[in-house]
Amino acid sequence: MNPSESNPSDPQAMIDRYLDGEISVEDAACFERLLADDPEYRRQFVRQSFMHRQVRDLTAAAALDAIDHATAPVDPVGSITPAPTPTLSERGQWRTAAGFAIAGVAVAIWIVIAGQFKTAPPDPGQRQPLKPMAGLLMAAHGVQWTSMPTDLPPSGGTGLPIGEPLAFSSGVIEIEFYSGVRATIEGPASFRLDSPMKMVMGAGRLSAAVPEGAQGFTVVTDRMNVVDLGTEFGVLTGWGGDDEVHVFKGAVKMTAGTTTHELNTGGGSTVTRDGIVRSIAADSIAFLRPEPFDPPEYLRWIEYRNRLRVDPALVLYYTFQGQEPGDTVADDQSGRGHYATMTEVAIEDGRIPGKPAVRFTGEESRVRFRIPGEFESLTAIMWVNIDKLPHRFNSLLHTDGWEQSEPHWIVGDQGDLYFNIRDVLFQTTETKVPDVDPASTIGAWRMMVGVFDRDTGRVAFYIDGQQVFDVPTESDLPLVFDWTEIGNWRSVKHGGQRRWLNGRIDEFALLERAMSDEEIKALYQMGKTETQP
Amino acid sequence: MDRNEQLAVYWTRAQPTVAAFITSMVVDFNDAEDVLQQTAVALVRKFEDYDPQRPFVAWAIGMARNEVLKHRRSRAMQRELLSDDLLGQLAATHEEMADELDAMRRVLGKCLEAVDGQPRQALDLRYEEDLKPAAIADRLGLAAGTVRVMLHRVRAALRECIERRLTHESDSDQTQR
User: Fold this and answer.
1) Across the interface, do A124 and B110 touch by the CB < 8 Å criterion?
2) Contact flag A100-B19 (C-beta cutoff 8 Å)
3) pLDDT at residue A490 above 90?
4) Rounded Cα–Cα distance for residues B5 and A165 (Å)
5) A512-533 in b/e burial notation, b at 16+ Cβ within 10 A?
6) Are residues A355 and A319 in contact, defined by beta-carbon separation less than 8 angstroms?
7) What mean pLDDT is reported for chain A?
8) I need a surface site. Which of A134, A477, A514, B4 has the fewest CB within 10 A?
9) Packing angle of the helix pair A105-113, B29-46 (nearest 10 deg)
10) What is the least distance, in Å, from the CA of B54 to any CA of chain A?
11) Binary contact (B30, A98; C-beta < 8 A)
12) Which residues of A289-351 form beta strands (DSSP E)?
């Protein structure tokens, strides 16, 4: 069979061109007709495209094998040592079939085998339109959902959308509104969250704790309108009897019909179907009251979180709030739906009491997500507590590949820090500082920020609000991410070696603008823990 | 074994064929991976509805077909090279050839090992790094046309090797009877 160059329309060559993404539109029409009309040609195409796919999977698996055997560190800049010639073992083939795209089969099957169907693995495609949320579902105990916010039952850390009807026939849920209000709701319940400060209840037994700053939190039922004046109260409605409001601490203003009543600690009211209001004593035993109030640090963190959440440039934001051991999905609080899949990580205490962090336990620990699109400028914010730096290069963030315009964010073991971006010529625009005391990067919670500023053509790195370096970059193309991980690097190319982070990540946010020195300093002050400088 | 384990077994066998089907219509490897992932999720969710009397591959390819269509809808702005109509025919052909494809997969590894030198480099650049022939040509200091011919020949050689090995297998099967 003579090859293609002299006749690109040769049918055999057309298959190759199609698979290599080089077929012309004209040839594509002819190609399609051949495929439709000629079963033997179709079979030939299937054989070739099967082989095409299999060669891809085998070379990828072989490269993973090579990673396992690689020992020499590879300088992230410039000359990449070529990967050892792969041997395609039975093992390589097994890895291909069953190990194909870890984020694919393994996660899906694992979820089922673990016996719990949590939220779906991330939809890797489009930049989602912003979906406003009222707060987070922190826990669900024995809940039978009848009207759900997504098409799978939500789990800890899932965002609850504004304006959508939610209902369950039994069980108890715990919600934390973005305003800071904490609520438990006992089923049967149906309700709608109109904002982080207002909910409309058709049925359920609600108990709410309202912090300073969230006074004015309102609950509306058919018969009454309850406005909290601080701090703890309960509402019962839709269970066949009277509507009730109980005040456990502080005061509320309750309006039924045309009259308004102010109710205080220990007091309460019932409202009948006919609108008749009677006084009662608060019954705190019947209500499941949410945890008593959080330390001021947590409330301060809520303000910090909300500051980031309302920034229109926020593309992705993982706080790990509400995550529990065994969770495989991290919710994205930016509202853009960039969920991450998590594997082989532990959920532990974070920098703020009451809010967890993710610990990377080994080479297979992954928090993995996909960000489509391009970015002109970028700010990456990570709160991290690194125990030690066993690898030459330790990953804060790595894109899967190391292609043009992709960023790699690294802490080196010699006090060298990198916010690398590959430029047009496949050279790294390497930004590192030779002399930072390595101790300043480990052993405590640190806020690390990387900024790429298109307007000034500079890359900057900050630790705990202080700028550590600020250098010019040659990269003049927009940044791209595609598949990305924090705390590790899943590289099947370039002989990538171990870079998993020995420690915990408490938060990670990405914004598509360059934050200024002052903003970063201020943000650090808002978000830092008591023990940070 | 329970249903979950059963699904895992079916899927391990069917996945290469399903992946191939998806790749044949969604050429870009990354997009194809995404669609494969969506398919895997759909299979897990709907596995209760699967009737074990039907061949699993057929059912899985049916799911994959839906996911490919969804993927195409989501790229409304892009012009597709092959039309949706072809999806049905390709799905059917993949189903028919499932056994043959399985056999090919078994021997492909060995055949690939035999490729070396510059053709090997070209293959690695094409498949590991997902480079187009023009980019491969830059890397290897060759003309783009030369690279295309090289890829074409390597692929033909692989096919011949596969066919030889499969024929040899079936021959030796017969002699052992």
Assistant:
1) no
2) yes
3) no
4) 37
5) bbbbeeebbeebbeebbbeebe
6) yes
7) 79
8) A477
9) 20
10) 21
11) no
12) 314-318, 329-330, 340-343, 345-349
